[in-house]
Amino acid sequence: MNKNPFVTLVFRGGRFHEAAMPLEALPELSAYRDLVLAVAKTIYQRENPERQRLPKGFEAGFRLVLERVEAGSAVPVISRVADDLPMPGLFPVEPANDWFASARDLVEEGIRAAGDGRPLPAGLGKDILVRFNAFGRTLRDDESIVVAQPGTRNGATYNRPVRRKLILQAQTTYEDEVDLLGEVRAADKDADGFVLRTAEGRKLEVRTPPLFFPLALRSLNDAALVRVRGTGLYDADATLLRVTMATDVSLAEEGDEQTRPGCQTSVEVQLESLKALGPGWFDESSPAFEPSALDWLSKLLKGLLDGFQLRRPYIYPTPEGLARAEWSAAGWEVVSNFDLSTRSADIMAARVDSDEINELSVPLGEPGGESKLGSFLARHLAAH
Amino acid sequence: MSTTPLSDLDELVFRQVHPSFVRDGRPSSQAFRPTPKDEGKLSVARGALTTAQAAYELYTSGLGYASGGAWAITLGECRAQTLAVLPDPLTSPPEKVADPAHAVIDFTPFSKSQAEAKDARMARFAGERGRVHPTVGS
């Protein structure tokens, strides 16, 4: 048996700073292996249209092992294992017809093309693109995987936006992880599911194993807040359509109301979409946004969210050129309009079940401004 | 425009939301606020006289405007915000396209702060109901 380096996957950002592989990210390695294998099968079938079947042992002959995790972010070194005396012609390893190496290269090129905004390689058909659903699902907004040739660390960067772009080339929906808080509003044991009402008021169908049914019924009867983790189906606008399978349903922890994730899209990605708006995006008078001003707002919001443990807002442009952050909390609707030229904010909190309104204007360039804003938001987003 | 508010509290009215005012399927509350040129009157389409799909198509194909979808609120939810909904059927000419289902929600009695609070609550009602056309996932 011999081993040859096959690929280097450089896990960057977030959880990978300490050069360690968090256990929950390990499925990415087998998902990568499955992706390459699927691509290799497709390449083989394309090059051998007369063959009705794959050669015997084709799949079993592709064995990848994790040799070690190197430092410099988390860098798992993946090697391919081959028997010393392979049956002739069974697992071809010559460069000219090594379908697995070709598949590896095609995956890398596809990722690179998607990241650069170029057309995808012709070899990446829809049947292959859907396979990206399983690879990268555990990545967070600030994380990426560099898919590099063996022995190198420079390659194609695979992150959530690239993954989404690849999958949406093949279909109108994609799967991603979900982590939701809400109350169960209806349950159907025969359909293996329940309806969850989220903090934002959306009602979502959740498919779940029977194991979690007792807890779902408890939430239904007692209006208990539950946390649902699993896989969700999203449309091209990143709208969560339903939870296709819950892998965990548990009672929410005390204080979870204050740490609800809010908008699923990161602040950075939301503000990037504002940068893409040109003059006249709404009407003839609506201006474009100054990128540096949005970068300032990005830093401000990230500091506020971390500092005051706030859920992530939904961010929108306004026709007047303001950036507008909105939160839907249990008892309040909170809106903050950021004037990017004066670096100030006007915040309004409207109680949902009465006419009560609280307002605050904050010059953010002055000492204490950010604290005032954060305190106001924390007070209303935590209240019921 | 009639000055007599519509009174069937179960009737839905549809509001078209600009694509940039939709984030992860959630409509911004500013979509439920009249713009300065609206002079305090927010345009909606009456559910008793049209459908969500027809209202969406009239707005996009008929008038050529961009819409990220139609959301709906009931007259009862407007009433709870002390907002009157007035029938305002449009004829062609002078309008480009006739719209017998057109109506307006009257924000004129309220201050800017009051109006902003009301449209935030209305957006919440609409968001909880979800996009009515195109329906989510279609």
Q: Layout of helices and strands, plus pairs?
A:
The complex is a heterodimer of chains A (384) and B (138).
Chain A: E1 2-13, H1 27-47, E2 63-70, E3 75-82, H2 99-116, H3 126-129, E4 143-148, E5 155-158, H4 160-168, E6 173-188, E7 193-198, E8 203-207, H5 213-222, E9 225-235, E10 240-251, H6 267-275, H7 291-308, E11 314-317, E12 323-328, E13 332-339, E14 344-351, E15 357-363, H8 369-382
Antiparallel strand pairs in A: 1-3, 1-4, 2-3, 4-5, 6-7, 6-9, 7-8, 9-10, 11-12, 12-13, 13-14, 14-15
Chain B: E1 12-16, E2 22-23, E3 26-27, E4 41-46, H1 52-62, E5 70-74, H2 75-80, E6 84-87, E7 102-106, H3 112-129
Antiparallel strand pairs in B: 1-4, 1-5, 2-3, 4-7, 6-7
Element order, helices and strands of chain A?
EHEEHHEEHEEEHEEHHEEEEEH
Q: Main β-sheet of chain B, in a few words?
A: 5 strands, antiparallel
End-to-end C-alpha gap of chain A: 64 Å
The radius of gyration of chain B is 14 Å
The percent range for strand residues of chain A is: 25-35%
Q: Could you report the average pLDDT of chain A, rounded to the nearest whole number? A: 87
Low-confidence runs of chain A (pLDDT<50, min 5 residues)?
85-89, 92-96
Count of extended strands of chain B: 7
Query: What sort of overall outline of chain A do the alpha carbons produce when their principal axes are compared?
Result: globular
Helical content class of chain A: 25-40%
Number of helices of chain B: 3
